[in-house]
Amino acid sequence: MDLDRLRADTPSASRHIHLNNAGAALQPRPVVQAVVDHLRLEEEIGGYEAADRASAAIEDAYAAVAALVGGSPSQIAMVEHATAGFVAALSSVPFRRGDLILTTRHDYSSNQIQYLNLADRLGVEVLRAPDGPEGGVDVGAMRDLVYRRRPRVVAMTHVPTNSGLVQDVAAVGEACRERDVLFLVDACQSVGQMPVDAESIGADFLSATGRKFLRGPRGSGFLWVSERALDAGLLPLFPDLRGADWIGPDLLQPSPDARRFETWEFAWALVIGLGVAARYARDVGLAAVHARVVALAERLRAGLAEIGGLRVLDRGAELCGIVTVAHVRLAADGLRDRLREAGVHTSWLSREGAVIDFEEKEVETALRLSPHYYNTEDEIDRAMETLARLVSDA
């Protein structure tokens, strides 16, 4: 990995220490340039005309995203963000009263809210599989529930937003395929920081965003859809004229591919930028990215554990590039603000974003630090020194 070249592509990396890649990573120059170029084209000739002229670049974005996570461009739907893709997929499941949604204790808070709303409106049951002793879902228990309860859908977050845990989605996906159960994966925090192959996971749907570890523009994301789900005719609850054709007064025909999960209006500049980001990530190499991110995160955890008053919260057999800590007295939002003033960018999490996990860990807030491959070991050390000083001063 040519770190000097990668940092040269990320000029602001030399002006502050950016450890908020689980929130929004710094975009590399080629991504920014692609977005700006298309906006300039829209400025010059108009939005519809610019989209027509950029049709090859737009199609290339679908191909680049497909190459990133496996499959073909026809399996990719472009969306505004991971939640939009997740909602579109979940809404396509033909739930009936009494159906079961099987999930985990670590699913993203927005997803948990959607499950509870479906339970309230449609009378479906929501069941969270128990955790294993090391943290993260107990895969054996999950498999047993898939076999015994035959859920309508299994919905699972690969990497939670509130910890460094990596859940074993592939093992769960195998069980879902064996029992012909739909499998919906939230890969919002994993795409871009590790290799992700949707087909190998056994997913029917896999949603992701552009702005996080993938280093794409904010307001971009995608949904990967399996051929099995497409062949089953699954269609989101509210398609529009991009997702389906109105072929008779009382008849519609879904799009033959994953674009049935899209809507008509797009910020095409962001779609093009997302495609550039996907190609950039593949050029760097996801295996190399993963190894470096994990190494930097381990360095952080080891150093943070030595700072008085801090507790590292991450648990699991496999951990990734998200590091969470809590202080015995100081609220995480205040620490985030003081770190930002010192040129270290992080984020913070409240109990409302991770009710089950934070109640178990007995914390109200947590500071989240998430390095990426363009960060240096020196930046990691300086960030920890800054945090240690702030905690000591407080």
Principal-axis shape equals: globular
Tell me the number of strands.
Answer: 15
Structure annotation, total helices: 15
What structural class should be given to the helix and strand makeup? alpha/beta
CATH homologous superfamily annotation of the largest domain = Type I PLP-dependent aspartate aminotransferase-like (Major domain)
Q: Helical amount among residues, as a percent range?
A: 40-55%
Q: Could you give the distance between the termini?
A: 39 Å
Order of helices and strands: HEHHHEHEHEHEHEHEEHEEHHEEHEEHEH
CATH architecture of the largest domain: 3-Layer(aba) Sandwich
Mean pLDDT value: 97
- Poorly predicted regions: none
Q: Strand share of the residues?
A: 15-25%
Summarize the structure.
This protein has helices at 3-8, 29-45, 47-53, 55-69, 82-91, 109-122, 139-149, 169-178, 198-201, 227-231, 268-284, 286-304, 332-341, 355-361, 377-393; strands at residues 17-18, 76-79, 100-104, 125-129, 153-157, 182-186, 205-209, 221-225, 244-248, 251-254, 310-312, 323-327, 344-345, 347-350, 365-369. The protein is α/β, with parallel strands linked by helices.
Name a few traits of the molecule:
394 residues; alpha/beta; 2 domains; Aspartate Aminotransferase, domain 1; 16% strand; Aspartate Aminotransferase, domain 2; four-stranded antiparallel β-sheet
